[in-house]
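cron nightly-structures :: item 1 of 1
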Amino acid sequence: MITCFTVTIPNQPGIPKLVRSTVSSIEIKWAPAYDDGGSPIKEYQVEMDEVEGIGFANIVEWENVFTGAALTTVIDAGLQPKVQYRFRVRAVSEYLKESIYSEVATFYAASVP
């Protein structure tokens, strides 16, 4: 008798949440992908996009800003004060199966009154 296991994509991780924000950095965290699809989660990939405007004025260009096993990260390169940034995260398993991206969350660099 042979037992076979099928590996599927992991569940999507939680929506990024703001931990803190400064003039030039944003720290975010997210909940893990609780179902790994049969293969342990190897890493999380966080992507960021600057919000330039609305409608056609906003060109969406996702950039990878973090890859690692942690459930939190600080983005501190190239951020501008009082500018909105979008974040999304996905889980990647050891078999390189990628979850769908989390829902998008938007935060400002620096506290806005």
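cron nightly-structures :: done
The chain has one domain: 17-108.
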